[in-house]
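Task 17 of the worksheet. Students: predict the tertiary structure of the chain below and write it out as structure tokens. Keep your answer in the requested format; marks are given for formatting as well as content.
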Amino acid sequence: AAKHFRRSVKPKELLTVSQCAEKYRVIDSGTNMPGHWRNEHAPHIVEIMDALSIHSPVKKVTFKKSSGVSGTEVILNWILYCIVHAEKDLMLVVPDQKLLDKTHNPRIKKMIRETPVLTEIYNKRTHQDKDSEDILEIGNVKIVKSIAKANQLRGEHLPYTATDEKSAMPLNIDGEGDAGMLTHNRRKSFTRNKGLDVSSPVQEGFCQISDAGSQEERYIKCPHCNHPHTLKFKNFKWTPSPTDDKQVLDAWFVCPKCEKRIEESQKNELLDKAVWIAKYPSRLKIHRSFTINSF
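Model answer:
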């Protein structure tokens, strides 16, 4: 009896989102590195994920990015975290039904199928639990999947919200405001609420994720002078073919300080050691905003 009591009062293990992903998530298909999730394969999203942890004071996280830099993985790992660790309800909002049907619903189902802890929880569901294209009830958690329509965003009140491809959403959804305002209204009644916005610009120079918050960028250190800097297009140089200017013979970066050449072959190692640096550190505990380009 005493042993049972000690087990029952044992505090829950304190995990961040990235730690939870490494502990539980498994990816068996659609990858050239099958097996358990490894943060070292996507080091740039670790701090983004961890800002969404239950013990983090951050209330808002925004991720402005180019395509193919793991934005959807941040959302999937947060959903995993909400189900197996935080036990918090979450609303996922996407621009339209097509993106929900072709991307998010299949990937959520795939994650449940390939991750043993999720499979076990899913198989314990009762006949009363909902499992539809719009709502997933799993364990003690409800995951609500919505498109950018005011009538879908009006009814549910949940502590966590995540929007994907926010820039593809209308600036004014059915005359009731933008996605940021509507999702904030869904979670504002919860003291420890959190919101995540992920998006790639739909056109050059325009993104619905505002330049607010901590305004963090990913900095590498020059291998020659140790100067920290971001990879900008203006520092990207190349040699075109003399017979075809669309063909590149050689490409490299130039350090903005010492102006020495940084080879393309050095980029991956430098990026693995890169760090997020905030323009406004005083905002780190409220709104962490991250921007990363395709370099």
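Marker's comment: The chain has a mean pLDDT of 89. The CA atoms of residues 38 and 142 lie 26 Å apart.
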